[in-house]
Every structure is written in structure tokens, then in C-alpha cells.
Amino acid sequence: MAGTAGTHGIAPHVGDLAERLQDRLEHVLGNSQRVRDLQRLSGGASRETWSFVADSGQGRQPLKLILRRDPPTEPRPEQMRREAVALQAARRHGVPGPDLVDWSDHSAALGAPYLLMTFVPGETIARRILRDQRFAQAREMLTAQLGRAAAMIHEVRDEEVGQLPTVGMLECLRSRYETTKIARPVLEVAFQWLEDNPPPPVGQTRLVHGDFRLGNVIVNERGLAAVLDWELVHRGDPMEDLGYLCIRAWRFGGRKPVAGVGEFSTLFDAYAEVSGVRPDPEVVYWWQVAGTLSWGIGCLVQANRHFSGATRSVELAAIGRRVAEQEHDLLRMVNSRKPTRSH
Amino acid sequence: MLHTFPDAAEIVTAVREFLEREVMPRTAGRLSFHARVAANLLITLEREMQLGAETEARYAHLLHSLGVGDETELAEQIRTRQIAGTDPRVVTALDTITRDRLRVSNPVYLADEIDDDPRQVNCDNGQHGEEAQHARR
């Protein structure tokens, strides 16, 4: 195919962005930089992801960098600030990830709020991580690495990240569900189960990643290389991250319960190793159900974009038939015969 | 039958084959992916045409047996707790309806043997996972 710029119809803007990046990098890194190979990577509609090489041309090693930028027409500065601050705090606590070279919640420098990060080589596509021979050893180590990384994320203190929203999960889910104006009895059954079997209130809210799963991490031959996509970070019950990691959708067809690659005992042991506290399986299970419900509602919302006429798309239309998958999981999970602790 | 040669099912199959054999191999990236999605939707339609009558009949019967006119009404009754979500008749009906949907849209999804329930009876004495299972046997 011809250059990616032509494919996305943004040719005039690529040169402009490259120039602004050069200016910004000179300011940040202290010497003049040439931006080479600027290209937009495929990805979601809400954020732009670009890769490029910054070359100072003085015999120094060129720097491969990633730019994550809001669309200039839809800046979300507060969100970008949250992401930057959370990523930096997580890195300080040892969570694997890119380093933040620069960021801004203003549009002056690069046309929109952005994060500029080091490039971390590896794979993000879950099916490849689960199936390629290349990652056979990584798969053995990944469950424990994910457990330890989650515990490190949950160590981040309030003062490190400033004001973050605390999300009331059921209220949030109910509100999202109601925007679709679609009635699904199985989702109501799940809401009822979650309301009737609540976990004990969490003593101290923690930093929660909010989208902790395969697809949002980079894996190399040695295992977990980076935790990405901090857009949904908030304060809450840390078990949300563990439950979410273990929903069926995020197994991507893998045969083991944790991210398709590992056992609960491995995950919980690794988590306890770092945090000093062993996760309560009852609480994790509640968050697995909540996470499944959340993903089901997400599919409803996506499909509804097609049916409302907002974005006609064969892909979005197809998602409508997939809600039954999460409904099937929900019915299975809330009707499981294993005992639930009575409250 | 009035509309034949080809009938509806044969039209669906012909269009699906066109997408799979001609469009997908000759396109790339997003377009190829969307052609795959479209072909999969037609496969769903093929299954719906085969199983539709049987599953629609069962669906109508189940809703009727629960005393509701449609799913919206059922959802409302569960939401307002006029019907308990744990009522065995509701559970069975919704399970059957959901399975019938998946038989049409994604039958392989019904093969779900993975145990993804971390709760065990004796977790607090330090035993967990497979070790606890073996200890009880």
C-alpha cells in the first residue's frame, strides 16, 4: 500500500506535526532533533497513536518514540493529565512500562493534549501472545508478572496522583446501560446479583488501572514489558483490576482462567508477594461478574452507535449479536454452584 | 415456494462466498477485516435461516410461560424485582434463550469448560487452587 499518510488522508498534517515535534523535542531534550518516519499506527478512534524516530545526528543513538495525542477537534486535557500522572507514579513503583519523555494538557505545542513516550518493543496483540511459539516462555511467566504489576499499581498513594475520580461501579454501569435505551433481561439479572452479593466495602481506595488486560500490555520473549492505556485510571477497589483481568473475553480463547495463560493461585501468590495481602477470591469473583457486565454493556453501546445512525459500520452492527456471549457468561457465573459467603 | 433459483439461503451463501473467495484475498488492512466481518454475519444469517423457526417458537413459548409479552417487559419486571433474577423458571428461560442466540451467532462459544471461579471453601487456611482440590480427594 502507498504510505500510511495517504491512507488516512492526513498528508498535509503529517509534515506540520513533524515540525511541531521537532520544535518541542528541541525544547525538552536540549538539542535540535530531526523527526523521521513519522507514521500513524492503527488504533481506536478516540486517540491518535504515532511512532517516529528522533535523530539528533551528532553520532548519538536515534530515539524511537511514541506520541499519543487527542484528536485536535476533541481535546480532553483532564484525562491526559490523569494518564500522565498515573503512568509516572506506576513507573516509580516498578510497574514495567514506557518512560514519559514529555506530556501536556495544553494544545499549544502539538495541537492537542499528548503523551510522548519511549518505544517499548514487543507484542500487544493477545492472539499472538497466546499462540506464537516465540512467546512460549513468556506465557509461563506472565501470570505472576501481571500479579506483581497489579500490586505495584495498587501501591500508588493518593498524594502521588492528585484528584482522581472514585467510580461507583454499579451506578456507573447502570447509567451507561440506560443511555442505550435497550432492555436486556440477563443484564438485569446480573445487576441484581451484584447488588444482592456485594463485597465488603474496601477500607482504603487505591489507584485502579481500569483496563488491565491482554491487549493493553506489551509482552516480549521475557514476558511483561509494559502496562499501557491508562485512560480509565481511577480510585477504587483494587480487586477490580484482578477480576477484570480474568473475564472470559480477555482470555482470547486461551485455556487457563487468568488472561488465558495462568491459574488463580499463581496470580494471587504473586500479588501477595508484593502487596503483603492475598486477594479474597469472593471479592475477585464479584469483580469478574462486574467486569463481564461492563464489557457486555460496552458491546451494547458500540452496537447502538450503528443502530442510532451515529456511525454506520458493519463491524459495529456485528457486535450487537455478541452481547449474547457476555450474557451467557453472566448466567453461568451467577448461577454457579460454588458457595458464596452470605452477608 | 415462490422465490427460488436461487432461494434466500442460496443468495446468502453466494454473497458470502464472493466475500471470502474474491474480496478478502484481494484487499488488505481494515477493508479486508470488514469483509471478514461481513462474511461472518452472512454465516450467522445462514444458521438463523436453518434454526430460526425452531428457536423463535421456543422463544415465544418461554416468554409466554413467564407471563410477559416481550423481553422489555421481562427486563423491567426483573429490574423492579417483581420477578426474582434467581427464580429457577427465569434462569432456565434466559439460559435457553441465550443459548439459542449463540447457536445462531457463535455456536463455538457454547463450549465453555474452563473453570474460572477462584472461590474455594477452605481458602483462608492458606490452601488454594489445585492443592486444595487434591487435599479433598
Count of separate DSSP helical elements of chain A: 13
Radius of gyration of chain A from CA coordinates:
21 Å
Determine the strand fraction of chain B and express it as a percent band.
under 5%
Side by side, the strands of the main sheet of chain A go 1-2-3-5-4
Straight-line N-to-C gap of chain A: 60 Å
Mean pLDDT of chain B: 89
> With helices defined by DSSP (H or I, 4 residues minimum), what is the helix count of chain B?
5
Question: Based on the structure, what is the oligomeric state of the protein chains?
Answer: heterodimer
Helix content of chain A: 40-55%
Q: Major sheet of chain A: size, sense and barrel closure?
A: 5 strands, antiparallel
Largest interface: A-B, 50 and 47 residues
Radius of gyration of chain B: 22 Å
Count the beta strands of chain A.
Answer: 9
Measured between the Cα atoms of the first and last residue of chain B, the distance is: 61 Å
Beta-strand residue percentage of chain A: 5-15%
Mean pLDDT of chain A: 91
Report the structural category of chain B. Answer: mainly alpha
Q: What is the percent of helical residues of chain B?
A: 55-70%
- N-to-C order of helices and strands of chain B: HHHHH
Q: What would the keywords be for this entry?
A:
heterodimer; A: 343 residues; two-stranded antiparallel sheet; 13 helices; globular; B: mainly alpha; 5 helices; 66% helix; disordered C terminus
Secondary structure layout plus pairing:
The complex is a heterodimer of chains A (about 350) and B (about 140).
Chain A: H1 4-8, H2 11-29, E1 34-40, E2 48-55, E3 63-69, H3 77-92, E4 100-104, E5 114-118, H4 126-131, H5 136-153, H6 158-161, H7 169-180, H8 185-196, E6 206-208, E7 217-220, E8 223-227, E9 234-236, H9 239-245, H10 264-275, H11 281-307, H12 314-319, H13 323-334
Antiparallel strand pairs in A: 1-2, 2-3, 3-5, 4-5, 6-9, 7-8
Chain B: H1 8-26, H2 29-65, H3 71-79, H4 88-105, H5 129-136
Question: What does the model show?
Answer:
- The complex is a heterodimer of chains A (343) and B (137).
- Chain A is an alpha+beta fold.
- Chain A contains 13 helices and 9 strands.
- Chain A is 45% helix and 14% strand.
- In chain A, helix 5 crosses helix 10, helix 9 (239-245) crosses helix 11 and helix 11 (281-307) runs antiparallel to helix 13.
- The longest helix of chain A has 27 residues, at 281-307.
- Chain B is built from 5 helices and no strands.
- Chain B starts with 7 loop residues before the first helix and ends with a helix.
- The relative contact order of chain B is 0.07.
- Residues 121-137 of chain B have low confidence and may be disordered.
- The interface between A and B is large, with 50 and 47 residues.
